Structures are given as structure tokens and as C-alpha cells.
TrEMBL record, chain A:
GO terms for molecular function: ATP binding; ATP hydrolysis activity. Residues 7-242 form the ABC transporter domain. Belongs to the ABC transporter superfamily. This is Zinc transport system ATP-binding protein. The keyword ATP-binding applies. InterPro entries: AAA+_ATPase (IPR003593), ABC_transporter-like_ATP-bd (IPR003439), ABC_transporter-like_CS (IPR017871), Metal_Ion_Import_ABC (IPR050153), P-loop_NTPase (IPR027417). SUPFAM superfamilies: P-loop containing nucleoside triphosphate hydrolases. Keywords: ATP-binding, Nucleotide-binding, Transport. Gene3D superfamilies: P-loop containing nucleotide triphosphate hydrolases. SMART domains: AAA (SM00382).
From TrEMBL, chain B:
This is Zinc transport system permease protein. Keywords: Membrane, Transmembrane, Transmembrane helix, Transport. Belongs to the ABC-3 integral membrane protein family. It comes from Halobacillus dabanensis. CDD domains: TM_ABC_iron-siderophores_like (cd06550). InterPro entries: ABC_BtuC-like, ABC_TroCD. PANTHER family: ABC-TRANSPORTER METAL-BINDING PROTEIN (PTHR30477), METAL ABC TRANSPORTER PERMEASE (PTHR30477:SF22). GO terms for cellular component: ATP-binding cassette (ABC) transporter complex. The keyword Transport applies. The chain crosses the membrane at residues 14-34, 39-58, 70-86, 98-121, 141-159, 180-197, 253-271. It is a multi-pass membrane protein. Pfam families: ABC-3. The keyword Signal does not apply.
Length: 261, 284
């Protein structure tokens, strides 16, 4: 195993009840990559991430993080996670932005120890990276969807992770802010050297920003540089998705909409 | 009440116990409310009643001469109830709230049978249902002091784990927080605090002291720590005003404490409304 390999999945399969959701997945993520994980609904993208995070255990195969088998891995501050569910938290929850961001330090601080001033400063630094420092003492429920998303990224960043995993982070963020959001991710990837893994529906946009793309439907159908993925033909895509796919964002020049007359 | 306080031991017991539960019930109440577990307090208070009834019956049948303190048996039943709720929540994964009516009605059902076997309803039982300023023994007061100290220490020690678990269970899990153990520890603390509070507030109203002050605090507070602080302040005010008026009006403290808490709740709702209107005017 190469030293630069951060995540390694070998023949990983998983099923809820009877049906395989993830089947024979082999995947390596290397340091410094910005990897987009795309695929149709129900293709097992979120499950694959849960497998990497140890939230569910593989039925077959093995998962390694930073060179260690998942079972022995305990260095969780190395991995930041922004969940799809982050947006659907109880919005009446009485907490300030800074209180939420500080929870990203829980694994770093460890049991029987308390939050202190240094942790607060770290949380403020993370908020500065995502441009939310002015909202540190606002109630989390009062922010817009896009602002909340930034706060959850700050929470994932506060423990200085080497790998940041984002599950559909642009859902609930208005289109105007999506571009800004991708710029933020590119900055994290290039300037802070953070390896990114992002699950998304937005095939067009991700290929413009990510360095690599993985396309899966239960198993991996494509894994390579974004440039190569753009060559991946529409026919291949249709086969994969099982129905015609319009790469809307991709083909802005000639926008065709099918009418069923 | 002040002169009588120094004169009568029973008043000291009730007042000190009241002050203690005024801190600890809303403290745990904050976590209960934000995790949407408000009804668990109700279920546990009802099964505490079963414990009280069992204790009264055993006292009668086994040793009619000596007097037992039913609070201990109440605590044992409450803790067992808490563990049963957790088990049932696993059995009915998709209907987690079902555990609450099962335990609640089961507790009352068994309780009623035990009470009848112990020769029916008497004044003792009435004071457990609605609270009493005279029924708290010195012995119980010390027990409540011990439980309060223990619970406050555990909450301080596990504050960040309890907070992250309340806000986002998934994130807690990838932060290496052992959710199952922390949750079990938490629910056992809730069971102990409910059994501690019942002598002053009464079984039927104990959950009010855990939820009403929090409901008021939620209207005003911005941060989680503020919510805790305000909840305790409101809970303490309710207990003190409630005990004082209970003594002077000769009505059970459960009633006066809850009515005070409701008045605070109404004021906090009005406060928020007035603030919102001022804000709109300011903008215009």
C-alpha cells in the first residue's frame, strides 16, 4: 500500500436485509485529491461513505483508513464529515454557532476533559476559513441553509483533518451560493492541502472542480481523472443510469429539452 | 415561613430538598427536551409510583412496626423502568415512542393492584401523588443531596459528550463518543432525579419541573449554556415560590410549583412577542 493512500476499500460489499447496496467495491483515495463520487439515486453512495466512516460494517471485504484496518483505527480527528443530514437537524436547537463548531473537537479533546479557551480560538479560526466568524454567537437555527452548511464545514475542519468527506453538501443551498461553495472547497484542497471526497448529484459541476471522479451504481463503473470522465460517453452514462441522462450543467451551449408530444 | 423554617425540621427538609431538585431537575430537563424525550419523564414518574406502592405493601406485610422510606424502592423501580424503556426502544425500532405508553400504563396498572393490596389510598399516597411540605424526612434529604451532587458532577464531566449526542447523534458516533453508554448513564440519572423530586413535587407533576422551565428558557436563550442557566433559574424560582405559597395556602406544593412554572412560561412567551414587535417597529 502506497504511503499516500488515505482510504483503501478492498472488495467491499454491503446489504441491508437481502439486497446488495454496495457490491465488490475497490477504491483508493490518495492524499491531495479532490474526488467527486457520483451515481444515480440508490446507487449506494451514502452507504459507501458510511462504510468508510465505520458507521456500518462491511458484510464482505475490508476498509483501511490511513493504512490501518478500520477496526484498529481510532484517530477520528483526521477525518472531517459533513453529513447529508446536517441540514435537517432540529432547527429549534438552542445552540450558538461557536458551540456547534466546538463539538468538532470532541474526539481530539478526549474523555474527562473540558473545553477551554484554546478550543474556542480554534473554533473561531475554522469559522474564519469558511467566512462565518461574524456569526459565531448567532443561534444556529436562525441562519440560512447555505450559512448552516458553512458552519458544519467549520465543525469538520476544526480538528485539522487530513480528509474531509461531504455527503451531498449542496442540497438546500441556493444556486447562487453553490459556486461560492465550490470555490471554498477548491481553496481547502489547494491551500490547506485537505483531501476531499464529495458525494453529489451534480455531475456537470463536480467534473469542473474535482481532480478525480468515481462513478458508481452499487459497484464502481468509472474511476479516473475528471478530464477522462468528461470523455465518458453519453451512451455509457445512459447504460449506467438505466435511462437517458441530460448533463445539463455540462452542455450549457446547446440546451435541449425533450418534449413528449 | 422564615421563622418556622428554623423552628421545624420538616420545613428545612422540604426547603433544602426543593432547592436541590430545583437545580437538578431542569438541568437534566434541558437534555430531555432538546432530545425530544419529554414523555420519558412521565413514564418514569409513573413507574416510580409502582415502587412506592410496592414499598408500602411490603412494609405492611413484612414489618408492620418499623417505618420504611419508600423513596429507595421508588428509585429502584424508576431505574429498572429506564432500562426497560431502552430495551423496548430496540425491540420497536420504528416505533420508539411506543416504549413510553407501555411502561407508563404498565407502571400504573401494577401500581393500582399493589396499592389495593396494601389497603387502598391514604394520606401518605396522596402526598406522593401531589407532593408535600411535611413528608420529607431528613434521611430523604441527605439522599437527594447525594444524588444532586452526583448528577451535577457527571453532567459537568460529560458535558461535551452529552451536548454532541443531543445535537447530532451521527456526529457523536464518528467523534468516538460511546452513545449507548452515555445514553444509559443519562437515563439512569433521570430516573434517580425523578424519584428524588417526587416527595416535594409529587409523582403526577414531576415531569413538569423537568420540562416547563426549559420550555420558558427556550423562548429567550440563544446558546445552550444560557438555556441551562435560565432553566435552573426558572426551576428554582418555581420551587421556592411554590413551596412558600403551598405552606401559607395549605395546598400541596406540586400544584403551586407547577402553576408558578406555568406563569413564568406565559411571561417568557409574552416577552418574546413584545421583543419581536419592538424589533419590527425599530426596523420600520
Amino acid at each position: 500500500m502506497k504511503e499516500r493512500t488515505i482510504v483503501k476499500l478492498e472488495n467491499v460489499s454491503f446489504k441491508y436485509d437481502r439486497e446488495w447496496v454496495v457490491k465488490d467495491v475497490n477504491l483508493e483515495i490518495e492524499k491531495g485529491q479532490f474526488l467527486g463520487l457520483v451515481g444515480p439515486n440508490g446507487s449506494g453512495k451514502s452507504t459507501l461513505i458510511k462504510l468508510m466512516l465505520g458507521l456500518v460494517k462491511p458484510v464482505e471485504g475490508s476498509v483501511q483508513l490511513f493504512g490501518k484496518p478500520l477496526k484498529q483505527y481510532d484517530d477520528w480527528q483526521e477525518i472531517g464529515f459533513v453529513s447529508q443530514k446536517a441540514n435537517s437537524f432540529n432547527s429549534g436547537f438552542p445552540a450558538t454557532v461557536i458551540e456547534v463548531v466546538k463539538t468538532g473537537l470532541v474526539s481530539r479533546i478526549g474523555a474527562f476533559k473540558f473545553f477551554n479557551k484554546k478550543h474556542k480560538e480554534k473554533a473561531m479560526d475554522a469559522l474564519k476559513i469558511v467566512g462565518m466568524e461574524d456569526y459565531a454567537y448567532s443561534n444556529i437555527g436562525e441562519l440560512s441553509g447555505g450559512q448552516q452548511q458553512r458552519v458544519f464545514i467549520a465543525r469538520a475542519l476544526v480538528s485539522d483533518p487530513g480528509l474531509l468527506i461531504l455527503d451531498e453538501p449542496t442540497v438546500g443551498v441556493d444556486a447562487k451560493h453553490v459556486t461560492e461553495f465550490y470555490e471554498l472547497l477548491a481553496r481547502l484542497n489547494k491551500e490547506q492541502g485537505i483531501t476531499l471526497l464529495m458525494v453529489t448529484h451534480d455531475i456537470g459541476t463536480i467534473t469542473d472542480h474535482a481532480t478525480h471522479v468515481v462513478c458508481m451504481n452499487k459497484t464502481v463503473h468509472f474511476h479516473g481523472a475528471s478530464e477522462e470522465y468528461k470523455e465518458f460517453s453519453d451512451e455509457d452514462m445512459n447504460q449506467l443510469y438505466g435511462h437517458p441522462v441530460q448533463q445539463l450543467t455540462h452542455n450549457h451551449d446547446h440546451h435541449e429539452v425533450n418534449h413528449y408530444d | 415561613m422564615i421563622e418556622s423554617f428554623f423552628q421545624y425540621e420538616f420545613l428545612q427538609n422540604a426547603a433544602i430538598t426543593g432547592i436541590l431538585i430545583g437545580i437538578v431537575a431542569p438541568l437534566l430537563g434541558v437534555f430531555i427536551v432538546v432530545r425530544r424525550l419529554s414523555l420519558i419523564a412521565d413514564a418514569l414518574s409513573h413507574i416510580t409510583l409502582t415502587g412506592i406502592a410496592a414499598s408500602l405493601l411490603l412494609e405492611k406485610r413484612v414489618s408492620p412496626v418499623s417505618e420504611w422510606n419508600p423513596i429507595y424502592m421508588g428509585m429502584v423501580f424508576s431505574v429498572i423502568g429506564a432500562i426497560l424503556i431502552e430495551r423496548l426502544r430496540k425491540v420497536y425500532k420504528h416505533y420508539e415512542e411506543l416504549a413510553i405508553p407501555i411502561i407508563l400504563s404498565g407502571g400504573i396498572g401494577v401500581g393500582v393492584i399493589l396499592i389495593s393490596l396494601a389497603d387502598g389510598f391514604n394520606t401518605d399516597l396522596f402526598s406522593y401523588l401531589f407532593g408535600s411540605v411535611t413528608a420529607v424526612s431528613r434521611d430523604s434529604m441527605w439522599t437527594v443531596l447525594m444524588i444532586t451532587t452526583l448528577v451535577v458532577l457527571i453532567v459537568i464531566l460529560f458535558y461535551k459528550e452529552l451536548f454532541v449526542l443531543s445535537f447530532d447523534e451521527e456526529h457523536a458516533s464518528i467523534s468516538g463518543v460511546n452513545g449507548r453508554w452515555i445514553h444509559l448513564l443519562f437515563i439512569v440519572m433521570v430516573a434517580l432525579v425523578i424519584a428524588s423530586s417526587m416527595q416535594v413535587v409529587g409523582i403526577l407533576l414531576v415531569s413538569a419541573l423537568m420540562t416547563l422551565p426549559v420550555a420558558s428558557a427556550l423562548r429567550i436563550a440563544k446558546s445552550f449554556k444560557q438555556t441551562i442557566g435560565l432553566s435552573i433559574a426558572f426551576g428554582e424560582t418555581s420551587v421556592l415560590v411554590g413551596l412558600f405559597s403551598s405552606y401559607h395556602l395549605s395546598v400541596p406544593p406540586g400544584g403551586t410549583i407547577v402553576v408558578t412554572a406555568i406563569l413564568i412560561l406565559i411571561m417568557s412567551i409574552l416577552y418574546k412577542k413584545v421583543r419581536a414587535q419592538q424589533w419590527i417597529k425599530g426596523e420600520a
